[in-house]
């Protein structure tokens, strides 16, 4: 298998394109099929429509199935429209069931039904089973291509079984042991199998302490499970312990990427609009509810400033520090939010550690506030001599109190939301920022109003 580097990819692509254009089938196959499937998909993405049609002629359905699985959804949809129905059905038969199910989720139900009808019955049944599970559960992301063995089989017999079934399995590093009712009773690693005496039974080799997930477990919990135990795959069982599939580490990587993108969208108030391929109208439609809500919260900020209009009129210099107070409060709160959301997402925040984490964030806010306050006490008198040390003290103390409170707001709100069984990332950065803006302005103007008589007017 050829490994492409950044330097060789362009040259290799040119050779493959040339082979397509001059209709050199053998040359194309020799060049293309020795590449990793991921590289094949990347190069296929650069082909024109006419070049793609020739690829369908040059490759068999099983060979192209490897390419199709690596394409993004939009190109998969385009490719499907270009494929002959017979060719497409054979290709889907050679794909892993979970990859077919993922694709069918993305297309219209009528088209999905016609694809299932064209597939082999056994393959179609596996896909239908996966489609029947609720989205974002272990059952929905698991694969059906795994190897199960019996406890009474010998090591030699299982190795022979691997030779026959291994090429069609998604992974063979773990072999799952089932009883007569297909219930999971043990697991054997490939290393243990190979190093064991050939005459020994699987019962003597296997581990009885097998860890598994259930079909209804949330995909994020499954990802955490596999990460925690450093598994390459995890068995998926029903409520009664029947083995129905496995979730592999490559599926988990996709889940983590999906969940990270979702959390990032929530934190930035841009959920659903991060995909660069969607239109401006669609992006605006998805972002508009948050922006409108934040706009109304902004009106509260404006009302706070309006409430202290007399203070501002008396000492107009106070207005200079409004952006400093607001920006510092928002930034500090968002940092605390990021820390807590990350901890919740990784499962690092336990009930006993919540108090410790809040104490740490509050301490962090106090230290940041002290640093900023001392800095302002030094800088402000030089920049604004009219206000002197008193003005510097008002701004410094206000910022100290604001940062101390802002970290607690940023840390506490996602914990409360999580307690209500809502995604903590919903406590988005812009939302936390606006709340802290309001609190910061209240603190700042309250202190300034209380000391107004001592300020030069």
Number of spatially distinct domains = 3
Q: Structural class, please?
A: mainly alpha
Q: Which segments are poorly predicted (pLDDT under 50) over 5 or more consecutive residues?
A: none
SSE order:
HHHHHHHHHHHEHEEHHEHEEHHHHHHH
Provide mean pLDDT, rounded: 86
Distance between the termini: 79 Å
Number of strands: 6
Kindly list the characteristics that best describe this protein.
22 helices, 66% helix, 6 strands, elongated, CBS-domain, mainly alpha, Tetracycline Repressor, domain 2, 457 residues, three-stranded mixed sheet
Report on this model:
Helices cover 66% and strands 6% of the residues. It is mostly helical. It folds into three domains: 6-136, MgtE N-terminal fold, CATH 1.25.60.10; 148-258, CBS-domain (Roll); 280-454, Tetracycline Repressor, domain 2. Strands 1-2-3 form a three-stranded mixed β-sheet. The chain has a three-stranded mixed β-sheet with strand order 4-5-6. Helix 5 packs across helix 7 (85-93) and helix 21 (388-419) runs antiparallel to helix 22. The mean pLDDT is 86.
Quick summary:
The chain is mainly α and 457 residues long.
What topology does this entry show?
Elements (H helix, E strand, L loop, with lengths): L5 H16 L3 H8 L4 H8 L4 H10 L2 H9 L3 H10 L2 H9 L3 H9 L3 H10 L2 H12 L5 H4 L6 E3 L4 H11 L8 E5 L5 E6 H6 L6 H4 L7 E2 L4 H11 L3 E5 L5 E6 H19 L12 H28 L1 H6 L7 H25 L4 H33 L4 H32 L9 H22 L7
Parallel strand pairs: 1-2, 4-5
Antiparallel strand pairs: 2-3, 5-6
Helix pairs in contact: 1-2, 3-5, 5-7, 8-10, 15-16, 17-22, 19-21, 19-22, 20-21, 21-22
């Amino acid at each position: 298998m050829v490994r492409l580097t950044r330097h060789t990819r362009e040259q290799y692509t040119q050779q493959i394109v040339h082979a397509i254009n001059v209709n050199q089938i053998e040359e194309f196959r020799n060049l293309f099929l020795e590449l990793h499937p991921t590289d094949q998909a990347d190069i296929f993405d650069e082909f024109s429509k006419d070049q793609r049609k020739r690829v369908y002629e040059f490759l068999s359905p099983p060979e192209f199935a490897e390419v199709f699985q690596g394409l993004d959804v939009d190109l998969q949809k385009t490719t499907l429209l270009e494929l002959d129905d017979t060719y497409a059905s054979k290709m889907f038969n050679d794909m892993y069931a979970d990859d077919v199910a993922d694709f069918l989720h993305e297309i219209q139900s009528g088209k999905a039904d016609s694809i299932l009808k064209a597939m082999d019955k056994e393959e179609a049944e596996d896909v239908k089973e996966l489609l029947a599970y609720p989205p974002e559960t272990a059952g929905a992301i698991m694969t059906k291509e795994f190897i199960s063995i019996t406890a009474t089989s010998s090591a030699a017999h299982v190795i022979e079984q691997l030779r026959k079934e291994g090429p069609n399995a998604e992974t063979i590093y773990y072999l799952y042991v089932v009883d007569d009712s297909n219930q999971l009773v043990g697991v054997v690693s490939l290393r243990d199998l190979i190093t064991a005496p050939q005459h020994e039974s699987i019962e003597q080799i296997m581990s009885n302490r097998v860890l598994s997930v259930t079909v209804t477990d949330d995909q994020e919990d499954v990802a955490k499970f596999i990460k925690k135990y450093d598994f390459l795959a995890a068995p998926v069982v029903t409520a009664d312990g029947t083995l129905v599939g496995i979730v592999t580490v490559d599926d988990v990587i996709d889940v983590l990427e999906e969940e990270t993108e979702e959390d990032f969208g929530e934190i930035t108030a841009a959920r659903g609009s991060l995909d660069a391929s969607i239109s401006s109208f669609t992006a605006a439609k998805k972002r508009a509810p948050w922006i409108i809500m934040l706009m109304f919260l902004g009106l509260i900020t404006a009302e706070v400033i309006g409430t202290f209009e007399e203070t501002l009129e008396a000492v107009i210099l106070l207005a200079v520090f409004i952006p400093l107070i607001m920006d510092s409060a928002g930034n500090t709160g968002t940092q605390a939010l990021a820390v807590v959301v990350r901890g919740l997402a990784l499962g690092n925040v336990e009930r006993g550690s919540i108090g410790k984490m809040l104490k740490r964030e509050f301490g962090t806010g106090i230290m940041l506030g002290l640093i900023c306050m001392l800095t302002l006490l030094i800088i402000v008198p030089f920049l604004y001599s009219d206000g002197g040390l008193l003005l510097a003290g008002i701004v410094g103390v206000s910022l100290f109190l604001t940062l101390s409170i802002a970290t607690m707001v940023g840390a506490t709100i996602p914990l409360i939301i999580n307690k209500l069984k809502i995604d903590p990332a919903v406590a988005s950065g812009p939302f936390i920022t606006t709340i802290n803006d309001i609190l910061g302005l209240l603190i700042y103007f309250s202190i300034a109003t209380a000391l107004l008589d001592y300020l030069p007017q």
